[in-house]
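User: C-alpha cells for this complex, please. No commentary.
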Amino acid sequence: MSSELNLAELPVEVLLDIFRNVAREDTKTVSLRTTLRLVCSRFNNIISDPNNNRPLSEIRMKIEKITIAQFGSALAIRAFHGTSNEQTAHMNRERIYSYPEIPLLKSGRENPVPWRWIDITRSFILSLMECLNGYPRIHCINFDLYELYNMENIKIIKAEFGKDIDVGIMAKFASNFRALGFIPKRFNTFEFIEKLTNGPEIGDFGYLNPFEDSGEILGYLSCLINANQLTPISLHTFSRFWAFQSIKFSTTLDQLINAIELRIKIGKLNWEISLSDEEWEIRNFMQKNNRDYQEVEPFNNDDALRLMKLHQFNGVYYSVLIIITRRHEVGCYHAKCLNRIIDMLL
Amino acid sequence: MVLITLVSSDEQNFPVERELLKQSGTIETLIVNMNLDDEDTDAAAMPIPLPNVKGDVLEKVIQWMEHHKGDPVKEGDNEDNNAEIVVPQWDDDFFKPAMYGSKHLELTVAASYLDIKNLLTLSCKAISNTFKGKTGPQIREEWGVPNEFTPEEEEAIRKENEWSE
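Assistant:
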C-alpha cells in the first residue's frame, strides 16, 4: 500500500460504497452523477461503466420516457425526468448525446392513406440499449409511432419488427422500461415475461400491452383496427392440448395467470390478451382450470365474466382479477388480468 | 482471555482479544482455517499475517474494534438498504483528524480488506459527507486528486447531462 494513497486510487468496491452514501442524502441526483464524474477520470470511468449500473442505481437519473425525433437530417433524443405530463415534461427534459442508429423510414406510395413504416432491427435495438445505459427503467416504450409534420397533421408510422430480434434480446431491451405497448405477439411468452419482471429494477414493472403484429401494413384505418386487437391466443393451444403442462406452446391463459400470481407482490401488473374462440370453451376452461378462482357477480349490467382469487402475504391481501369480455366490434373475447392490493377493512 | 497475534505488513505484532476479531470477516475465516479456536491449538504461537495492512493503520483498526466491542456485526451485502447512515459522534471524532489524508483512506481500504462491515460503512459515509454541496473540481481540490481532464473533456461530461433550455 502506498504511503500516499489518493482518493482516486481506492478500490472500486470502496468507491461504489462512497458514491451510494452520497446519493442517500443528495436529492439532486441528476447533478450528482455529473459532479462525481467531474472529480477525476477514474470516477468518470467507474460511473460510466455499465457493469456498475446496479450498485450505482441510486445516482442514476430517474427517467420517465424518451423520445427520438428527426428534424431534416438532424436527430434529437430526449429523456424526460419524473413526469409523464407533457407540459411539465417540457420543462423537465434532458438531451442524450448518444444517438441510436435510427433505421430509415419507408413509404407506401400506392396507399390512399398516407403512412410510413420503420424497420425495428436487432441492430437498432442493440444501439438503443447502448444509449440507455446508465438510465433506470423508463416509464414506457410504445412502438406505435407517430410522425409529426405539424400539430394539425399527425401521421402514423408503423413499426415493423425484424425477424432477427429474438425473445432474449427483446426481453433484455424491454427491461429498460416499466411498461410496453405494441410489441409483437411472438414476444408474448412466459420466457419473455420472466426475464422482463426479474430484472435488476424489479418492483417497477407495471403494464404489458402485447399487440398483434400483422406482418404487413394496410394503412391508417387498418392500424386503428389493429390497435383494438390484442395478442390473440387460440383456445386450441390450451383447452385441447393441455398446453399449460407443456413448454412447447406459446403463453396460454393459464401461464398468464401463473405469471401474475408469481409476481403478485411486485406491484400492479396488467396484462391483456384476446381470446378468439367460443364462449363455452372459455367457460369450460375456467371451470376445469380455475384453480380456486371464484366468479364475481356481474355489475354495470355488462356480460363480462369476472373471476377473482385472493392471496395473502405477510398479512396483506392481494387479488388477481380476470375479466373476460366479448369484443363485438372485432368478434373475439378479450381477457384482462390484473392484480391489486385489497384493503380487507373495506 | 484468549489473545491472537496479528502481524502487520511492516512486521509489527499486535496481540488482540479473540472476541474483538469477530468483527472482521477476513480474520474470522483465517481463525477457522488455522483451527485457532481448537483447545489443542496454541493460538498465541500462531500469529496471523496481514500483509496488506501497515502497523499504524492496524493499530487504528484495533482501536476502533475495541470501542465497538459487542456491537452487532453486519452480515451480507447491504447494497439495497436505502436507510440513511449517521456517523456517531465518537466515530466522527475518530475519523476527523485523518480526514482528507491518506491515513483515512488506508483505514477504509483496511476495513474493506479485513471485511469489517461496520467500520467500512462508517468510514465511507465520513468520506461521502465531505462531498456534500461541493462541485467535482472542489472535491478534487480538497482531496488532492490530480486534475486529469482537459477543459474540453470537462465540457463534454457536463454536456452529457445538461438540462435543456
